[in-house]
Amino acid sequence: MAARGLLKRFTIAVTGDFGEQRTLEKIRQWICYHGGTFTWEISRKVTHLVCSKENYRKAVATVKQAIELKTVKIVSFDWLEDSLLSKPPRVRNEREYLMTSIIRTTAETKERKKLVRKQNITKGMQKFEKECKDLEQDVFSNGYHIYRDSTTFAYDITLARANLCTNKNQRYSLKIYETHNTPKLYACFTKYSAPGQSSMPEILAPLGSSFELAFGVFKQFFRLKTHKEWDDRLIKANMGEEAFVYTPPKEGEPKGQVLPFEVL
Question: Measured between alpha carbons, how far is 60 from 165 in angstroms, rounded to an integer?
């Protein structure tokens, strides 16, 4: 079939925005040059509707009319372009270009990516938790345990932030340790983790520190990452995209002391 008459059997309508180089007028000229009939309106004579994803998803009037007729093949612009630019030029089978298939494939791809992202986050959390446990074992072997205040709240918290650019979750584990024996000595450690990367624990207050030092750097780090004071931790407030978020314990669970604070 000669390229000039490749589309002579077809009446084609077009809807959507296909970019500056693919204006509706240029597409009309292209269709007519290759023998096809271009139309602005949907009727029973129309064989194909070349449609953008956006207009198909919005179900604009042209798309609704084509669907109601059930005889119009609603295809992507790629069907027209691949048919005319293939060597030799030939009308491509519409099956892989139908908008129903393209939208379904796009949705399935998104679901797969979502599942993979969820699995990666789960794996990252498992690795993060294991490394935190390894750190605890090292500290516990030196005679320390996680510090609990008079409300039995454990100073073992996680600060989290979703990175909107990379779509990855970032976390800090922040902990205060206390010696088993008296006189009580303390330490404060933090550890950063994100999918695909992890760091060594950072010592904020070394083993053998006073409570004032350990708790002081704990509050300082909390303020630095969450943009709020430790005593304001239970107040819900949007501190911006850059801030890490602390999720308080569930209702009925210890939430820790609020000022005035005393070491018991």
Answer: 32
Interval 132-158: pLDDT, tens: 566 556 566 678 899 999 999 999 999
Residues 249-260 have a mean pLDDT of 81
Strand intervals (E) in the chain: 11-15, 37-39, 48-51, 73-75, 144-146, 156-163, 168-179, 186-194, 197-198, 202-209, 245-246
pLDDT one-digit tens code per residue, 92-122: 999 889 988 887 776 666 777 666 666 666 6
In 24-110, which ranges are E strands? 37-39, 48-51, 73-75
**Nearest residue to 201 (alpha-carbon basis) of 175, 183, 222:** 175
pTM for the complete prediction? 0.48
The residues, ordered by sequence, that sit 6+ positions from 11 with a Cβ below 8 Å of its Cβ are 36, 37, 38, 39, 45, 46, 47, 48
What order of strands is seen across the sheet that includes strand 73-75?
37-39, 11-15, 48-51, 73-75
Bridge partners, residue 197, by sequence: 194
In the numeric block, the tokens 């704990």 are attached to 218
**Is pLDDT above 70 for 35?**
yes
Beta-carbon contacts of 109 under 8 Å, excluding residues fewer than 6 positions away, are none
- Identify the CA nearest to 171 among candidates 213, 119, 131: 131
Cα separation of 186 and 200, whole Å?
20
How far does Cα 175 stand from its chain's mean position? Answer: 28
